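Second opinion, please. Pick holes in both lines of this record:
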Amino acid sequence: MDVLTDLLSRTHARGAFFAHVVATDRWGIAFDDGAPLGIHAVLSGEAWLTPPTGQPLRLLQGDLILLAEQGRYQLASAPDESACSLEEARARWQTRGRRIEISGEGPATSVLCGGYRFEGGLAVRLLEGLPPVIHLPGSVRASDGLRTALQLLAGELEDGSPGQQIVLDRMLDLVLIFALRVWGSEPDAAVPQWLRALDDPYIGQALLIMHEHPDHRWTVDELAHRVGLSRASFAKRFNARLGVPPLSYLTDWRLQVAADLLRSSSMPLAAIAKRVGYGSAFAFSAAFKRRYGQPPRAFRDLVDGES
C-alpha cells in the first residue's frame, strides 16, 4: 500500500453520484449536492464548465476536470446555456439507467460525470492543497491507465447489474488515482506538498511507514535510520517537502485517524489511544483537545448527534 492508496481507503468514498450525458441538442446541468470532489470527462464533442467562481472553461474531447471547489457549478453545451438540476434533467430528458439522452440535430457530445461523497474526515488530507479546478487536456493526459479506467467506467454506467454502486465507487477511485498521477507529473502543476512528497524516495518511504504504523513510538532518529539518511538530513528534507517537522506531521496524522475512528466506530477511547500511538487515554484526550478544541467523548457525541 502507498500513501495515496491509504488516504483513499480511509476516506470511505461511498455512494458517489454518476451520470453519463449523451446529447445532440442544447443542454445544461447544474450540480450543487455538496460532493467535495467532482470528476468530469468529455468522451466526445465539447462542453462548457462554469465553476462556482471564475470564468467558464471550454472542455474538448479527451479533457478531464477535477473540481475541488464547493458551491453550485454547471456543465452545459454553451457558457450561457440555462441549466437544471441533475434530478430535473433525469425527469426532463430520456434516461436509461444513469444515462441521460438529449436528442436533437446537433453534433454529438458524451460526458461522464461523477462526484465523491466522503464518509470519513480524512478526506480533508486528501483534498488539502488541491486547486479549485484541475484541467487535464486530452493532449496532456496521455495515460493508458486513465483512458482504460474511463472506458470501464463508461461501460459500467451502461449496465444495471446488482452491486453496481460499489463497482462504480471503486472505478471512480481508479480514475482519481490516475488523474492525480498525470497531473502530478506535469512540471508546472501546483501540486500540494503532500502529493509532491510521495515522489521523494526518502520522504515518501517515511510517510508510508508512519501511515502504516501510527501506533509505533517513532523518533526522528529511528525514521531517519529506516529510510537511510542521517537525522539532520532527514529532518531538513522532511520539513522542506512538507513544511512541518516529521513528528508534527505524525501527531497530526494520528489525531486525524483517531477522529475518523471516533466518527466511524464504537471503539473505547483507550483502544483508539493505543491504535494511534498514545500510552493512555488521558494523554490521547489532552492531545485531541489541543487539536480539535474538544475532548474525544464530546467530539463523538457531537458526531452521533448529527447522524
